[in-house]
Design goal:
heterodimer; A: 241 residues; alpha+beta; 7-stranded mixed beta sheet; 6-stranded antiparallel beta sheet; 26% helix; 31% strand; flat; B: 161 residues; mainly alpha
Chain lengths: 241, 161
């Protein structure tokens, strides 16, 4: 038996849970409900605008006076903390590493082979431990705009080995990551020069990027917080496949 | 798009969309959700299509994207709903079922194999549907075939060619 026959024997039995008529009915019902909600939204734009403005004004006033909110703003200046305010990271000198993108450029296409001179405002080495086979990760972390996580002493990689760098957002902290996504720049440092892999927005909950080294050697990976506020991660991992 | 036109397309492609979603999600309940979302997108997108093959390719691309988003989502990776637990393939599919062996592969390998061997797409067409490069798909097909062959031989499928 070949693969074509095996696929056909197996998948021909996989049938939808709904009949075609049931599916059509459910789609029509759902789109009609969506339309109704849209009409309601369109009818009340002024009310919503006023309500939003009022809530925002109250919220800003409340936040400005809230010691809990201020504590997260002020205590993170210059250090990376977790929600329990334990310092994980060790500051490392910005030089001689060069090549980081400037934060203003996040989301713009990355030019190949260009080495830039910009450096992030603060650079921190964070220990990564092997919690599963070939999967290195760190604990919960919170860091501010411009601060940069660098993955410890780095990883010895061979040519064309696939590496996946993943971030999972943490929404349990009081001043937490935006659920609509946050801007980050991710890259690697090879021979003391930083190169971009990705710059842009997370999907709100997570982000995974793949990297395949062209040469064997020691690679460190970095993540820059390019959003205006703090970002909290439940987990950051480097998986070597 | 009119209701009649949607009805016609559902009759033509609802099974393909469901099977593609099932191949990704390994769960009938999730495949059902994805199938409904896909056709809602078709009904509301207002896009002009050249022919039925164009519609099918678009539907499978949307299905693939919705599945990838769901598999990537924080919620999906951290929480296994009771319904999904009941529909876990290992429990609902017989031990010697080919689908169960296919589901041991990573999603990217099994979807490439499914698209090629069941839907009959070429590597170039799969690349367009899954938003990847043709060489990547060729590599996924080759690795997927090898891994699946190893599993099948290990499980006693010696008649496999």
């Amino acid at each position: 038996m070949n693969l074509n026959e095996m696929f056909h024997n197996s998948f021909s039995d996989v049938s939808p849970l709904k009949t075609d008529d049931e599916l059509l009915k459910s789609i029509i019902e759902r789109t009609e409900n969506m339309e109704k909600k849209k009409k309601i939204r369109l009818r009340k734009p002024v009310v919503i605008a006023i309500a939003t403005a009022a809530v925002m004004a109250l919220g800003i006033t409340a936040m400005a006076e809230s010691p809990k909110f201020n504590q997260f703003i002020y205590t993170t200046t210059g250090i990376i903390i977790d929600p329990d305010k334990i310092v994980y990271a060790t500051p490392i000198p910005q030089y001689p590493i060069k090549g980081f993108s400037s934060i203003e450029e996040v989301g713009t296409p990355i030019a190949e082979g260009v080495i830039k001179q910009e450096v992030p405002t603060e650079l921190y080495s964070v220990p990564f431990t092997e919690k599963e086979e070939d999967k290195f990760s760190m604990e919960k972390i919170a860091y501010s705009n411009g601060q940069t996580i660098v993955t410890g002493d780095g990883f010895e990689l061979t040519e064309n080995q696939c590496v996946t760098i993943s971030i999972d957002a943490d929404f349990t902290a009081e001043y937490h990551t935006d659920r609509n996504g946050e801007y980050v720049a991710i890259g690697y440092i090879y021979d003391d020069v930083a190169y971009d892999i990705f710059s842009g927005k997370t999907d709100g909950e997570s982000l995974s990027v793949d990297f395949i080294p062209e040469k064997a050697g020691n690679y460190r990976f970095y993540i820059i917080n390019c959003s205006a506020g703090m970002q909290n991660y439940d987990n950051v991992s480097v998986e070597i496949k | 798009m009119t209701e009649n036109e949607l009805n016609r397309i559902i009759k033509l492609f609802s099974k393909n969309v469901f099977q593609t979603a099932f191949c990704y999600m390994k769960s009938y309940a999730d495949a059902d959700d994805i199938q409904q979302e896909t056709f809602i997108k078709l009904y509301t997108c207002g896009k002009d299509f050249e022919d039925d093959e164009h519609i099918k390719a678009w539907l499978l691309r949307v299905t693939a994207n919705l599945c990838k988003n769901k598999l990537r989502s924080y919620w999906y990776r951290k929480i296994l709903p009771l319904e999904a637990a009941v529909n876990t393939p290992a429990e609902s599919i017989e031990k010697d079922d080919f689908t169960a062996f296919l589901f041991r592969l990573k999603p990217k390998y099994r979807i490439a194999l499914y698209m090629h061997y069941y839907e009959g797409y070429s590597a170039k067409e799969i690349a367009a549907i899954t938003d990847s490069k043709e060489n990547t798909v060729l590599s996924q097909l080759s690795r997927g075939r090898k891994q699946l062959k190893d599993i099948l031989l290990k499980e006693g499928y010696h008649e496999f060619k």
